[in-house]
Amino acid sequence: MQRPILPQRMRTETTPLPSLRALAAQFAHIRRRSLALAAPLSEEDCGAQSMADASPVKWHLAHTTWFFETFILETYESGFRPFDPAFRILFNSYYNGVGARHPRPERGLLTRPGLPTIMAYRAAVDERIGALLEAPSDHGADPTHAGLARLLQLGLQHEQQHQELLLTDVKHLLSFNPAMGAYAASALPASPQAPAGHGALGWQRLGGGVHEIGHGGDGFCFDNEMPRHRQFIEPFEFARRLVSNREFAAFIEAGGYRDPALWLAEGWDLVCRQQWSHPLYWRRDPERDGKWLEFTLHGLGPLDPERPVTHVSLFEADAYAQWLASGHAAGADHGATRLPTEAEWECAADAANAAKITELAQYGHLHPHAAADGDQISQLFADCWQWTSSSYAPYPGFSAAAGAIGEYNGKFMINQYVLRGSSCATPPGHSRNSYRNFFPAGARWQFSGIRLARSV
Amino acid sequence: MQRPILPQRMRTETTPLPSLRALAAQFAHIRRRSLALAAPLSEEDCGAQSMADASPVKWHLAHTTWFFETFILETYESGFRPFDPAFRILFNSYYNGVGARHPRPERGLLTRPGLPTIMAYRAAVDERIGALLEAPSDHGADPTHAGLARLLQLGLQHEQQHQELLLTDVKHLLSFNPAMGAYAASALPASPQAPAGHGALGWQRLGGGVHEIGHGGDGFCFDNEMPRHRQFIEPFEFARRLVSNREFAAFIEAGGYRDPALWLAEGWDLVCRQQWSHPLYWRRDPERDGKWLEFTLHGLGPLDPERPVTHVSLFEADAYAQWLASGHAAGADHGATRLPTEAEWECAADAANAAKITELAQYGHLHPHAAADGDQISQLFADCWQWTSSSYAPYPGFSAAAGAIGEYNGKFMINQYVLRGSSCATPPGHSRNSYRNFFPAGARWQFSGIRLARSV
Amino acid sequence: MQRPILPQRMRTETTPLPSLRALAAQFAHIRRRSLALAAPLSEEDCGAQSMADASPVKWHLAHTTWFFETFILETYESGFRPFDPAFRILFNSYYNGVGARHPRPERGLLTRPGLPTIMAYRAAVDERIGALLEAPSDHGADPTHAGLARLLQLGLQHEQQHQELLLTDVKHLLSFNPAMGAYAASALPASPQAPAGHGALGWQRLGGGVHEIGHGGDGFCFDNEMPRHRQFIEPFEFARRLVSNREFAAFIEAGGYRDPALWLAEGWDLVCRQQWSHPLYWRRDPERDGKWLEFTLHGLGPLDPERPVTHVSLFEADAYAQWLASGHAAGADHGATRLPTEAEWECAADAANAAKITELAQYGHLHPHAAADGDQISQLFADCWQWTSSSYAPYPGFSAAAGAIGEYNGKFMINQYVLRGSSCATPPGHSRNSYRNFFPAGARWQFSGIRLARSV
Amino acid sequence: MQRPILPQRMRTETTPLPSLRALAAQFAHIRRRSLALAAPLSEEDCGAQSMADASPVKWHLAHTTWFFETFILETYESGFRPFDPAFRILFNSYYNGVGARHPRPERGLLTRPGLPTIMAYRAAVDERIGALLEAPSDHGADPTHAGLARLLQLGLQHEQQHQELLLTDVKHLLSFNPAMGAYAASALPASPQAPAGHGALGWQRLGGGVHEIGHGGDGFCFDNEMPRHRQFIEPFEFARRLVSNREFAAFIEAGGYRDPALWLAEGWDLVCRQQWSHPLYWRRDPERDGKWLEFTLHGLGPLDPERPVTHVSLFEADAYAQWLASGHAAGADHGATRLPTEAEWECAADAANAAKITELAQYGHLHPHAAADGDQISQLFADCWQWTSSSYAPYPGFSAAAGAIGEYNGKFMINQYVLRGSSCATPPGHSRNSYRNFFPAGARWQFSGIRLARSV
Fold first, then answer.
1. How many CB pairs below 8 A link B and C?
2. Which of C431, D186, D290, D422 could join D284 in a cystine, given CB atoms 3.0 to 4.6 angstroms apart?
């Protein structure tokens, strides 16, 4: 996720902001959670960077702190002095408005400052933010501290986004040496074997009219979810669950990775050039006749056929849909399957009253769970992000806020595709129907899965 | 244009097809036009390939012929024998269903067969197609010859697309040595100087409801224009003309190519990496104080400030809109300018009754013309293709036809953006409101210009 | 060959120069030969460039003419005016001292000026050189016209070097479409089958003392062949003939391209990255059980086992020697075979009185010939250039001349390796024992073959 | 240094081997020194890899241990069991004969096993080697334990080579964040300012006959130093000291990095592509009028003009020599300066009786020292490695030993150039006149400096 950061609320002011006291409690809670996520890792684990798109854990811990220091303390703390002036450059991600920055692909080379210094940096900024919230200085222009509250809220959402990235980045790192690479101490339990005939893919009919899209209720949202606006949605059907590992393995067995007719042209280029033949973290087990293994945050183990397929690119998701539509898969004919648009996805989530469902989501393991059987739309949240066919683009009327923080609101709105929902790595409370995640079509290191749709 | 090729009509059958006699006349006319376009060029000009994205003129002449031979003669001619069996591979563009193909970046290395052989190939196929249309063999399954007619119609549209590419590809080639590089014998006349205060950018209000998008009337269309479907379009305003060279030069003077705040992140990377500082074919004149020159198909000459800016990428178009929206441009405040979506563009073209306007378009020169003054929407067709903010994606309900010809209908529907309208290089009769051209956001060698819009 | 160009004679003045009259005759002869080499080719053949390392035939024809115009006419012709001022840049190869130059990888894009213009350029310069030699203007500083004679001699040697490159470059181009790609009208005859037991590799013992290396006799030489100097050569043995296709095919059959133990580390990287599995122009014949074909300037035909293997890199030559040394080849044990140093090669050529042999060489075909049986050292000249293990480095005391022409004498003396001898594509009279050709170790498009040596 | 590893002694057996007891003492001493070198570094410092050519400190510590485990314990320890079977792959550098290996550019991603595990690995192998040397098992074929002694000696030399690499690699890493990057606790003292007119470059005349090259005396050498053989060396002069920072700064001021006439063609490409304008670790000080700083293992400080220039490529060394030869430098005319050949260097070292000098070298700081004034050849050892113009090639009669350890003896003998001497980072006792270090001509991260020579 290349993070959108400006809350639309800054302009519209229709929702009550949380109090500073409430925010202080959230702040303490969320900041602690970042430390808890890093706790199982060694200093070395925290320092390495496995590719330019990923960042070291230490960098996530520092950058989220930098965000509070730069955008809040620097403005609101009287007598502000930086913890270390060099950090302004070292831990700036991409804000040209803030000034220079350390080159992204070289984040793993920053062995100094070391992890203990970063921990001290976090503690110092936490303490200063705490003090500020206890006794915010008097701002003539903002007596209710709304600006402070909004930036704090944004900083916390920002930190939550990095919590998910921390997990997907460390998973990518550990995958280079999977024999030694569990993040979580516990093993991943096998899902109960589904009875034969059970669990066939079901469909829900939706659409056929003007639908409102975008954030509409109370509470925080990012600016890219706004403005709420109308879209006409032709009738369509939405798959009740995600595509499973069992189903995706059948695609592989049928030669799906070897048939150019199933792939978008650019996807086929990637398949050939990078020699893709399975999802990112699948491995063949040389000692069990090539049976599939999967590397998860719980270590390397047998592939669980009931869980949803994950760590696939948009290209693989689309090729799977094409293959199913081609009628060559065994089993029921599902017609002209395809990926949903983001409007269709949001329409389905609204229909499913998904927000309520989310409350019940269990964050037991750091891997997507098998679908429950039933005739409800399921697995919208807390399992896998779901690729849509929609490119990431501004909603009608979208515009960026002024100043450094809003400087680049839309600058990622090109050649990226929207994912909807949330994943097993998403922090609790960080999901909603209107949330727009986005990555390039070839990205595979997020918990991305496949939701199917079809026109009627 | 990576060509969409399957006519939706194959499935829907709602429009009467032209008669074989009428098609034979069109065939002769269009095929002759390709030869006329190549006539000013030497054998060497016809053989060279300036980049992987462009093809040699000779290859265009051969590939369009291959299309008729492979998809029509091979099916409909009794006793078919190929002109040369090697051509099946050499002149296949991207149809895996037809078999192997010569690598695209090596098209310029095919000095054999030489241009005279290709001319003989064209003549032979033309004669055989002529004979076939005179006396089509009896197809029990298709007594009205509808299949033949449809494929012929498609082949002609395909050839027209390549006529435009032939011109943009040869322009790109000649630009490597601009001192010697005119394609057209005539010089490009200067536009009359606009009087002061004249020609300010005007806006037309549109939208605000459900609009039908996609091909709806009689006549040919490509499959990607179908199905016609409904979209809700929020109210917006549409610029009455294209952005001019004068206006774009002001953007350059104001440092537009040096300010990252104006650019999409990926565009800024391109600006830095490829050191963009002006549209593709602008040059500084070292002997006239660095005044702008422009290389056109009519040769290298002074930049005409009244003509529309052309050969810009989507990134440059978007940065220009951002700059204008930022309020730093001299003159009137145009508000939050942006690029239109393709639905907005089509809505505007429908409102302008643009098809009728097209009839009047003058194809006098191979370069876009200055806008006429007035309060009508102008320059929709025959000047520059217009970048939209819409990624190239399937319309709801789109599906590909069976067989080799339809094999890859949607395979380019990723990481490409839609351009609407047509250009000075588009063949007469090859434009319509629903036409969808598409290129990657960084492409600059087409006649692509800037149409602005804004939300209201 | 990245051409060394400054004749040592400029400094040493020990050898009589040819008269202007004699040079005029050579000039006419050599210049005509370039046209004869281009005669079988179409304009398209002459314009294309198959890779950055190769140049179009047209460019060779123009650049050699540019050399005479720039370095001779510009200095010696009174009232000099350039044929076309743009050519100074377009046809400069790498002389920064002369000014800017057209980028090397874009030589194939120069469709203008066309081939007829280049032919006119050649004719005009030939005529002006002819006139100059008839009546050289009076140079006070050089009454005997020695400077003029030396530059003319150099220009002719330079043109001969380009004659060889013209052939190897056009061979590379035509190889992209081998079915249509013969350069020569005649077919290549098969060599007589060698009787069994015939033609075993023989060895000649040499060395064991101080030997003089470098050009020593009369006649022209390049500066890199000078100064003649002493080297101590340990005793060694020199193979009497080149490695044959039959022998190299055995290396392939034995898995030579799949065994990293035989390869220099950088060579193995190339084998893997470029998937080398045979010499550059060998092909498997799908219709004859995968039997080897070879593409030659005479077209595609069965591999002739008796002819020397050619178009191999230094890496392949070295790997072959390692394989033979490893004792895994069938047949006689040849001991610790390796490539010779260039000093060893020159020592062997001197011992063989090779210059005299060269006189007898037959230039019947544009492909290396099978070795004659016998106990003499053979195939030193006129078949394949022979890789040595010597990096291209200055001889002790080497120094570059002043001025533009000598500006870069040694600038290629890094990461290139010396080849000795000459090839079937070398012009008659352009060979000598001290001649140093040089290419990067991975180059394969020259007529480069394998001469073995071993220490004793 | 891509390490040559096979001691020629294995074949020649002319020198007495150290006793196992003596080797045990050396083993303890050298192994401790590696730990001492890593002691100032954090776990994070030890884990990072700054480029593919460099390795993490942790990897050096593990790989040197792997060498003893794989080549000694596996052969000589009865009941051998590996410390961890996975290490066989993880810490193999390039021995295909040993089997698979972890990809070199991904060494920095091996956060597991962590540094504490590697320390335990070292301790375990040290203990087992110690036990083995106390009571070597009875080898019928080798009652004197010569094989064991030789491999141990080789392992220790190998570890010493990695000690130097450890320092140069960590220097490269820390240079990415120079403000925080000192390795050594102490600062580097300034050299005493040389009095005016003092310290001019002096020359020593040498050569002019047959000279023996290669290892000849007692003691260990690598196989690439053998066989000792004869070379004829033309008379030459050898600079008595290295080029200083002051002198190299004058080259920069004179535009040396901007004049293509001074550079080898491939060097000029690097200068342009990588925008070289100074030695690797020089920086301009923005707060002192752009005065030069140098980053050393002692931190970032003012450039010391008296110390030798270091961290230059062969290209920069050669360009400096060309510039001095061009006569444009201020001061004395030194004639046609150039780099020495490796034979000339060894001849000079022999003449200087350099081995004895080495004994006196002071390893006070981890940076090269200013030259002492005098008329002796100085700075041969313990300051900077010295580029020669000699490509790294086998000596006449060189041949590789059998088995995995000798598998690739010569595989780096291509496109690398020899450096002679030793540096401030070379372990004490690891220098000799015949030692051949080698790197690609563009490498700059070693302590490489400039020794000049000239022909007479």
1. 82
2. D290
